[in-house]
Model the fold of this input.
Amino acid sequence: MKVVYALLIMLFALQGCVLIDLSKSAVDSSKVLVGLGPNEVEVVGIMAMLGDSRHATVIEIAFAYGDAAMAVVVSSDASLWFKERQGFCRNYANQLDVIRVELPMGYSALLSELPDGHEGAQAIFVFVEAMGKADLTEFKTPWVILSDSDLSVLEAPPGADSSQKPVVASTGVIKLC
Done:
């Protein structure tokens, strides 16, 4: 009889955990609907400083919505990302958005048209071919600054007191997945 009671208690405890997880998921979804997701990224600025390169720099921004996609994005370095991105898009199609920009040295762009629901992304990373990657998740208006062989992320463009009035340039962005 004690075994039956113990089994019933375990069953109710497990159901309680499931209900808590479901309610947490519903609250997270509701937050995303009103723009209060796990990240606060509103726009992404990119500035390619003048340098020796005669070719445009390839920049891809990955928005990971699930734990599996987040693990892939966080653990991949830039060279692996560019080799395997098509496979990542195929395998994590419902958990991953990727946008791509090719920017010549000396130019900048402000990406204001981010993927629908990007507020729900658990991780947002920028991958720059032949330079590396950076985490954008904790920023509100990140600016990715590219020099000859280095990348950095700032809260505002260099030399600006605020990034509240940048020029919006959303054309030229390609959604890859």
Notes: The first strand starts at residue 44 and ends at 48. The helical segments are 2-33, 67-75, 78-91.
